[in-house]
Design brief:
This protein is about 25% helix and about 25% strand. By secondary structure, it is α/β, with parallel strands linked by helices. The strands form four sheets. A five-stranded parallel sheet has the order 3-2-1-4-5, sandwiched between helices. Strands 6-9-7-8 form a four-stranded antiparallel sheet, sandwiched between helices. It has a four-stranded antiparallel sheet with strand order 11-10-14-15, with helices on both faces. A hairpin with an 8-residue loop joins β7 and β8. α5 packs across α6. The radius of gyration is 21 Å and the shape is globular.
């Protein structure tokens, strides 16, 4: 059987994900609007497409599906999630995303908080700007309702700072109580019926710009079950990253759910998640059984910058070029 061709949209810098799918046996096709997106040059095939908001974006992806016999579409950034989920019928092949309603919940942090409250999932106390009570416990965070990469987040230690940040932020915001416990990320993967196949917790030793650069996998049964419960309640399909805290009282409030492979993807992969293999199995029409807790604990990741070097024709150079001076 020929390898499954996987189309990665908004490929950007996610060389780690593209190469992991290649190791799993896929033929990789990376697409991006930027001809210098590094992941383009880590893929077996590459293509330039219009911007996500361009009316021709979906048609361009559909053409790639036809031209390359694509069987699986994996978005690598949040930018086109809702569009792809809404237009999956036009794309024709498996789009590794949940339904539009789930994506809307993930995109709107205040709506997600309300959903968690309704379903009995712990979440930090959260208010809209005009509804913050007079006895609200400080410190609090002013957070963009629809944000990513830790942008438009401001810590307020008192009412004066809160009023200042609410008056000056340019993003539609909410106010959320600061969690005091240890932060964790849980990388989950669910099948097409939103059944959680695995949940791998990791510590957040250090992050920059909202992306984990140092962490360690931990086999914590409470966190594993928490990740499964949140993922299935939200009807996640494919990958998601769940961020939560363990508070002094033992609660596990959820602060964010991103329905994609997380920034710390190399860590659960190194710990044996086999998430690329599970995605390929779904594309092949298989129904893998859950493997909750099946991963290696104590695996540590520390990340560094790397690069792609191109020649004047735009082809990747594998070796340093030495020239006479």
């Amino acid at each position: 059987m020929a390898p499954v061709v996987v189309l990665f949209t908004c490929a950007g810098q996610r060389v780690d994900i593209v190469t992991a799918f290649a190791r799993a046996g896929a033929t990789t096709l990376a697409a991006d609007v930027d001809k210098l997106a590094p992941a383009l040059y880590a893929a077996d095939r590459r293509a330039l497409v219009p911007p996500v908001l361009d009316p021709g974006y979906i048609d361009a992806l559909r053409q790639l599906v036809d031209d390359h016999d694509v069987r699986l579409i994996v978005p690598l950034a949040d930018l086109d999630h809702l569009l792809l989920a809404t237009e999956r019928a036009r794309l024709g092949e498996l789009v590794l995303l949940p339904a539009p309603d789930t994506i809307r919940l993930c995109e709107d942090k205040y709506a997600a908080h309300a959903f968690f409250a309704e379903t009995g999932i712990e979440s930090p106390a959260t208010w809209l700007p005009g509804e913050v009570p007079g006895d609200a416990p400080f410190p609090v965070l002013v957070k963009a309702r629809r944000g990513f990469g830790s942008r438009h987040i401001y810590r307020a230690d008192g009412r004066g700072e809160l009023d200042f940040f609410l008056g000056h932020t340019t993003a539609e915001s909410m106010v959320q109580q600061v969690c005091r416990g240890e932060e964790f990320s849980i990388d989950v993967f669910c099948d097409l019926d939103a059944r959680c196949l695995n949940a791998i917790p990791r510590t957040m030793i250090e992050s920059k710009g909202g992306e984990s650069i140092k962490g360690m996998t931990i086999k914590d049964s409470q966190l594993i079950d928490h990740g499964r419960r949140v993922a299935e309640a939200m009807r996640i399909v494919g990958p998601a990253n769940i961020q939560c805290f363990r508070e002094p009282d033992g609660s596990l409030p959820v602060t964010d759910v991103n329905p994609r492979f997380g920034g710390g993807f190399p860590l659960p992969t190194a710990a044996g998640s086999r998430y690329p293999e599970l995605a390929l199995a779904l594309a092949a029409g298989e129904r893998p059984e859950p493997m909750l807790g099946e991963f290696r604990e104590g695996v540590v990741m520390t990340r560094y910058f790397s690069q792609v070097v191109l020649d004047e024709a735009g082809e990747r150079l594998e070796e340093p070029v030495l020239e006479d001076v």
